[in-house]
Amino acid sequence: MASDFKLCVGDVANVFDGPHATPKKLENGPYFLSISSLNRGALDLTQSAHLSEEDFKKWTKRVTPEPGDILFSYETRLGEAAMMPQGIRACLGRRMGLLRPDRTKVLPEYLLYAYLSPDFQAIIEQRKIHGATVDRIALKELPSFPIRIPGIAEQQLVVDNLNALDAKIQLNHQINQTLEQMAQALFKSWFVDFEPVKAKIAALEAGGSEEDALLAAMQVIAGDTQERANAAEGSAPEAASGDKLARLQAEQPEQYAELRATAELFPSAMQDSELGEIPEGWAIDDINGITSLIIDHRGKTPKKLGGDWADEGYIALSAKHIKAGEIVNREQLRFVEECLYRRWMKDELQKGDILLTSEGPMGEMYYLSKNDKYCLSQRLYALRANTKKIDPAYLFFWLQSPLAKSDINGRATGTTVVGIRQSELRKVRVLNPSKKLTQRFQQAIGGSLSMMGLRSKESLSLTSLRDTLLPRLLSGELSVSEAETQLTEAEAPANV
User: Fold this and answer.
1) Which of 12, 110, 157, 188 satisfies CB 3.0 to 4.6 Å to 192 for a cystine?
2) 3-state DSSP assignment of residue 313
3) What are phi and psi of 107, to 5 degrees?
4) Mean pLDDT of 278-292
5) Under the phi-then-psi rule, with left for phi > 0, alpha for psi from -120 to 50, and beta for the rest, what region is 375?
6) 267, 281 in Cβ contact below 8 A?
7) Distance from C-alpha of 249 to C-alpha of 263, rounded to nearest angstrom
8) Could you tell me the residue ranges of all domains in the chain?
């Protein structure tokens, strides 16, 4: 059936090449798109640098990316592609090309799905050129690569169904980013900038009483809480005032009491430490002292036990699956059967464990908000907080703080691949407030972490469904009506 629709890339799109050089990178200006900007079929501008207006004119002499163009890598990260979005001024970087679709023949969204489909990825694999250092595809040959393109009407139906899944996955990603930013902001206020402590100090230095200092800290903490609520609703932040505290005391006495109890946990003075000035009474510990377990599978894979990958079972995670607090590269996930999982995971993961990549790249983290039974593979640590001393959520966010990242990076070794050994990881310093305060932080952001975990898990299921439907829809093996039925059945259990 698929052969009825076989065309070549050149029949439906023009191929353009980017410049074979790199301009001076700036903090602002038009984007300079590199292969690292391609992420799971989407354009990740957080991985893109900027260039000057003068360089932008030079770098767009061959082509200026337009909305609907399909961006792709023709060296190293072969098979990666994304669609150029609206409202972005950008130029192509090295090793980047684009397909400009003939919209009378192919929808841009369909062309992207067709490019990412297993059939076309196999064509890329067959026709790639092996170089001394990197593999590549010859751009002059790309127009001759066969690709399945049905009529526009069928394309639209396929796009509508797959877009519905992608939209849900992207929405989950955006919500998780917002929740993460809100939790990061609270952590920074309390444990990096020490705002409640500094508010108390300022009140005392102005001649206020201990009660005035406590109220000043309460206003800061209430403002943090309100800012997180406003961020969730998309509203502008609004500082707490004495009048608002009075209303809170009159209308919601339990919340007021909780707020006051939290403010009392912050000291009203600072002290010197090896990490600089920190609140009085807080300690400096290390990971060895505040963890109860470190699982180390840095250079190992469960296949070494003599087993094999399975079609289903327990998900095996390695470093390449952890990025920005989420599980990524879901299409590359593999599974092991229960017997192999039991032999490999002598210590099973628990809720609150922190997965940390040891290399390639180093320092990416994922927080387990549930007792998920993942099987750890290469280049991953699992850290378990000693809950008698510290709470897991606090440790997770501390390890993402500038001080912790600098400490981890300073202890890493390697030339081509930089990584950190367990012996050095154990020495990484941790600011350790009172147990009651880290527990209060855990309570404040625990709901956000649980929601992030649920949405990440939902995205995992939706991605699996999309990756199952994609090749069958694009090959014609599965009809659009059959796909719609599967999508409807998947929606109820997938909703969070």
Assistant:
1) 188
2) coil
3) -80, 135
4) 96
5) beta
6) yes
7) 15
8) 2-149, 185-281, 283-432
d(CA 199, CA 181): 23
Distance CA 13, CA 106 (A): 8
Q: Are 16 and 62 in contact (CB under 8 A)?
A: yes
Instruction: Tell me if the bond preceding 392 is cis, omega within 30° of 0.
Output: no
Q: What is the pLDDT of residue 458?
A: 85
**Distance, CA of 172 to CA of 466 (rounded, Å):** 15
DSSP string covering 154-167, please? Answer: HHHHHHHHHHHHHH
- CA distance readout (Å), 312 to 164, 169, 237: 25, 22, 46
The backbone torsions φ and ψ at residue 138, rounded to the nearest 5 degrees and listed phi first, read -80, 120
Among 175, 267, 170, 176, smallest CA distance to 217 is for 267
Q: Angle, to 10 degrees, between the axis of helix 435-475 and the axis of helix 480-494?
A: 170
Query: Would you say 494 and 461 are in contact if contact means Cβ atoms under 8 Å apart?
Result: yes
Please give the pLDDT value at position 177.
Answer: 86
AA identity, residue 307:
G
Burial of 419 (0-12, 13-18, 19+ CB in 10 A): buried
Show Cβ contacts of residue 161 under 8 Å, excluding neighbours closer than 6 positions. 469, 473, 480, 483, 484, 487
Nearest Cα to Cα of residue 48 among 75, 17, 71: 71
Contact 367, 457 (CB under 8 A): no
Do 283-432 and 2-149 have the same topology in CATH?
yes
How much is the average pLDDT of 125-139? 85
Q: How confident is the model at residue 350 (pLDDT cuts 50, 70, 90)?
A: very high
Q: For domain 283-432, is the CATH number 3.40.228.10? A: no
Give the ranges where 311-368 is alpha helix by DSSP (H).
Answer: 338-344
Return the SS3 of 388: coil
Hey, which of 244-248, 279-283, 314-318 has the most confident mean pLDDT?
279-283
Q: What is the CATH number of domain 2-149?
A: 3.90.220.20
As given in the structure block, the two tokens for residue 253 are 């006495």
Residue 421 zone, left/alpha/beta (φ > 0; ψ -120 to 50; rest) = beta
Residue 372 pLDDT level (bands cut at 50, 70, 90): confident
Interatomic CA distance for residues 459 and 180, integer angstroms: 16
**CA 115, CA 109: separation in Å to the nearest integer?**
10
Residues shown for the chain = 496
C-alpha 361/C-alpha 353 separation (Å) is 20
Distance CA 231, CA 30 (A): 28
Phi, psi angles (nearest 5°) of residue 463: -65, -40
Beta-sheet strands, E only, within 371-422: 375-376, 380-385
Reduced to 3 states, what is the DSSP secondary structure of residue 495? coil
